[in-house]
Amino acid sequence: MSFARSNARKAAVQALYQWQIAGHNLELIEQQFFTDEWLKDAQKNYFKELLHGVPEHLVAIDQALAQFVDRPVEKIDPVERAVLRIGVYELLYRLDMPYRVVLNESVNLAKTFGAEGSYRYINGILDKIALQNRPLEQQAQKNPHSNS
Hints:
This protein is mostly helical. The protein has eight helices and no strands. The protein is 72% helix and 0% strand. The relative contact order is 0.13.
């Protein structure tokens, strides 16, 4: 995955965190990120997709999460919740992105922004969601020489 796309995810975690905590208008948050040049080295279109796509699909994303988390989604630490929501969005709606890439990027985001060890929690949840939603891709990853 590209450096610019990883930076877009980093900015999206921060923007979604802000949206979750303060409930600011998405357009205002987007404008702030563009104005403050937080997106200088980021893939701007992907940032916009995540910033608007996660809230747009929030019900489906949170339903997918609720099956595997140990508490109500709203009780998850806001940083971890933002990382998880981005990961679930990518697993459900960006089928062009290999699930392993989604998991690795989410783990890196958790290591950057989350509490110590939160990356294990995030990896475990997203791995279960990937298994449920992308079983063929996971099976192919485990058995690369099988003729499916």
